[in-house]
Amino acid sequence: ERGEGSEYLVDQVVVPEIFNLEQNGFLGDIALLELSKSVNKTEAIISKEPIDESILTAVGWGYTSENGVLSTWLQHTLLTKLSDEVCDQFHTTKNLGQRPVDHFC
Question: Which stretches make up the Peptidase S1 domain (predicted)?
Answer without folding.
Answer: 7-90
